[in-house]
Amino acid sequence: QVQLVESGGGLVQAGGSLRLSCAASGRTFSGYVMAWFRQAPGKEREFVSGIMWSGGGTDYGDSVKGRFTISRDIAKNMVYLQMNSLKSEDTAVYYCNAFLFSRLYWGQGTQITVSS
Question: Collapsing DSSP states into helix, strand and coil, what is residue 6?
Answer without folding.
Answer: strand
